[in-house]
Amino acid sequence: MADTTDTPACPVPQPVLTPVTELDAETQAIVDRIGHRAFWHQWGHASDVVRGWLAWYQPLVTAGRVELRTKELCRLRVAALNGCHY
Length: 86
Known about the structure:
With 86 residues, this protein is an all-alpha fold. It has helices spanning 25-34, 37-43, 47-62, 68-81. It starts with 24 loop residues before the first helix and ends in a 5-residue tail after the last helix.
């Protein structure tokens, strides 16, 4: 197990944008399908940018030989080792 005593904690970001409380129909359908409500409500101001990012990111995360559960466990472990909240 790695020694994390010298690893600085990752500060939790403080959102500065007012959360979007109402999403357009297309965005709401995406949120209903994949979740990430807090993400969409924070970044819904730029929903086209978020859709573009998800079009790139979702296949990266969900496709491939490694199961999604294993990828998620790796992300959680890396975050924990670096003192970051995930």
